[in-house]
Write a structure and sequence with these properties.
about 140 residues, alpha+beta, Nucleoside Triphosphate Pyrophosphohydrolase, globular
Length: about 140
């Protein structure tokens, strides 16, 4: 049986006014840097789960945007399918919790260097492609 999960590539406009920053989380259980995501609860819609997971793991509220590519991989001999959305952070603050001990805001190039899995890096590329066509002004990495 496939494990269903959802998450967001969480972004904000840079406080400097130049470009964007992405939120990455560190999960000590896996010793990795990734995007916020988690398993769906019974009868929970994927987008609702993605927003819930962002709030639980980062403390941030956000506005969901376009859906990003779905990611599929195997964990403990089970297929995991994670649906992702682009999401702009609107408010909140991070507090370490049982699943996530750190969160950082990084420029896209720095985020690409920090992310552990290539599949997470591909989501950054997808997000930037979408934002380049929807945001006004130059999109700097």
């Amino acid at each position: 049986m496939t494990v269903l999960a959802a998450g967001c590539v969480l972004w904000r406009r840079s406080p400097s006014g130049n470009g964007i920053e992405l939120a990455l989380i560190h999960r000590p259980k896996w010793a990795d840097w990734s995007h916020p995501k988690g398993k769906l609860k019974p009868r929970e819609a994927a987008r609702d789960a993605a927003l819930r997971e962002v709030l639980e793991e980062t403390g941030m509220t956000c506005v969901p945007g376009p859906e990003l590519p779905t990611v599929r991989y195997v964990v403990d001999d089970r297929l995991k399918e994670v649906r992702y959305w682009a999401a702009e952070a609107t408010s909140g603050s991070f507090q370490p919790n049982s699943e996530v001990d750190r969160m950082v805001w990084l420029r896209p190039n720095a985020a690409l260097g920090r992310l552990t899995q290539n599949r997470d890096k591909e989501l950054v590329t997808a997000l930037l492609s979408i934002l380049r066509t929807t945001m006004e002004g130059p999109m700097t990495l």
